[in-house]
Structure formats: C-alpha cells, structure tokens
Amino acid sequence: MGFFLETLFGGLMVGTLYALIAIGFVLIFKASGVFNFAQGAMVLFSALAMARFSEWIPKWLGMEPGWLTNLLAICVALAIMVAVAWVIERLALRHLVNQEPITLLMATLGMAYLLDGLGPMIFGSAVYSINVGMPKDPMFVLDGLFEGGLLLSQEDLYSACIAALLVAALSLFFQKTKTGRALRAVADDHQAAQSIGIPLSRIWVIVWSVAGGVALVVGIIWGSKLGVQYSLSLVALKALPVVILGGLTSLPGAIIGGLIIGVGEKLSEVYLGPLVGGGIETWFAYGLALCFLLVRPQGLFGDKIIDRV
Fold it and tell me: What is the H or E stretch that residue 257 is in?
C-alpha cells in the first residue's frame, strides 16, 4: 500500500506541472482561438534568461548568489517575457486580426522557431543550471501509518505547491476580474468584442504576458529539475494530451487533465510496464488522448461545438 501511495503522490506532483504547462496553451487559445505552438519555445527562452541573469547579476552587482539575486533575475526574465509579448502583438498579431485560425496557427509556429533560435544565440547553447533554493533531498512522511513511511521528493512537493497556487490565481483572474471576462469575450468572437469597445491589441499583450509568466515558472521548475537545455522546449509536448483530455477552453480541465495524465503515466509504468517490457510512460498520455478524441473530441470540460445550419 505504501508503494502504491508513493507512486500515486509522485504522479499527482508531476501532473500539477503538466497542468501548469497546459494552462499556457489554454490562455492563448481562450484569447485568440488558436493553438499556441510557441509555448514550448517560450518555456526554453524564459528559462535561459533566468539561468543566465542569475549568473550575470551577482557579477554585475558584486554580490554573492542568493535569494536576492535570484529574485532580481526572475524580475528581469519576467520583464523580458512581457517585452516579447509586446513585440509579438506589435509585429505579428496586430496584422492578423480577424484572419483565419490557420493563419494565426502558422504565426505561432513561426514564433516558436524564432524563439528557439534567438534563445541560444543571445544566452548561449550550453546546459545551464537554475538554483532557486528548492530542497532536492527526499523526505519520509506518514511514519506512523506505514512501515518506514512514504518517500517523497521535496523538490516535487515544492513545485506542486507553486503550480497549484499559480493555477488557483489564474482561475480567479479569469472568473472574477474584468480583464478575465474580456479575455473570454475575445476568444468567443474577435469582431463582437471589438464592437463593444474591448481593445483587442491590449488584451493580446496581457494574455501573452501572462502566458510568458507561466512559461517562466515552468522553465524555472523544470530547469531546476532537468537543467536548462534545448530539450526543455520538448517538455511542452507533454501538455498536448492534457489539453486534449481536459478541453482547450477550460482552465479546470487543464488541471484535471494534468492530474489524470500524471497519475496514469506513473501507475501504468510501474504496474503495467513489467508486463509489456516498459516504456509505457512515454506513450500512455498520447494513447489516452487519442481515445478521448474518438469519444469526446472537445475534452472533459471543453465547450461543446454546435453548428447551426
């Protein structure tokens, strides 16, 4: 029982990180109605900025690396992602208002390749580390209930708590604020939103800035765990089954989908992997997403598509 719970908790913690990545996709889709292929590149770009500025700032200021220099590096990286959002809106999105979704989709694909090239060119292409003080040593919990207790990763636990807090804050932002309601209106119909006075350009800058902030958090967490390298942008591919499962228009769906994928991967790898030779964790999420596409294409919480003829 203890081993099962360890696996379950590990899956839940990884699932919160998957959910956090998926939220970046959902944010852009809710504001523009297009799938953002640049989200993975934004994760890599923001993580590179964080890693390099956490090295440069202590040298520039003559300080020892610590929480203050890390905080300054996070602020600088966040400012860079806001600037990236402004440039994307000014140079690309502004000229594509009311265009076909496929046009916006190809624009995000172009942004992905551009950021993938600019990141290493500006910040370097080596493997960098991010240290924000999250403990990496495992810990034992529930000693009184299970013999030897349950072994949990402190880093995964801290990461899951940060992801959960950010998810809750974004959910409140979308549901309770005027800007959040405006974002939902823009996602439903660009022209109708403009006709009632919602400034489309400002909304797109806001939502891309928020998505950039989410990408920065994801980049810091995964960069701390895996190191900052090009493969970090591929981590975002794990969010594709999550958004298919939960629904492209639902923040709660991204959360539930992430938890389902995280737990399903861990349990299937541990209990079914030995029976089929292993490797289930790499394709389980995509197989589950395919099943949902066949049965419920809009996902668990996605808006049902109704065509009027």
Answer: helix 251-267
Roughly what angle, to the nearest 10 degrees, separates helices 154-176 and 200-226? 170
Q: How far apart are CA 145 and CA 196, in angstroms?
A: 59
The token duo for 7 is 């696996």
Q: Chain-centre distance of CA 190, in angstroms? A: 25
Q: Which of 308, 305, 297, 31 is nearest to 188 (CA)?
A: 31
Write out the two tokens for 77: 């990286």
- The pLDDT assigned to 104 comes to 79
Q: Mean pLDDT of residues grouped by 10 in the chain (309 residues)? A: 79 85 81 78 91 93 88 94 86 75 83 89 88 81 69 82 83 80 71 75 82 89 85 77 84 86 88 77 86 83 60
Radius of gyration of the chain (CA): 20
Bridge partners (DSSP) listed for residue 141 = 150
Report the SS3 class of residue 277. Answer: coil
Instruction: Give the angle 109-113-117 at the CA atoms, nearest 5°.
Output: 165
CA 207 to CA 215: how far, in whole Å?
Answer: 12
Contact (CB, 8 A) for 245 and 289: yes
Amino acid at 182: A
What is the pLDDT, as a whole number, of residue 190? Answer: 66
Rounded to the nearest 5°, which phi and psi values hold at 28? -65, -40
The secondary structure of 140-193 as a DSSP string is EE-TTTSTT-EEEEHHHHHHHHHHHHHHHHHHHHHHHSHHHHHHHHHHH-HHHH
Q: Counting every residue, how long is the chain?
A: 309
Name the strand (E) or helix (H) holding 285.
helix 280-295
pLDDT at residue 303, rounded to an integer:
63
* CB neighbour class for 169 (10 Å; exposed up to 12, middle 13-18, buried from 19): exposed
Label the pairing between strands 138-141 and 150-153: antiparallel
The confidence score (pLDDT) of residue 306 equals: 55
Give me the helix-helix angle, 200-226 and 2-32, nearest 10°. Answer: 150
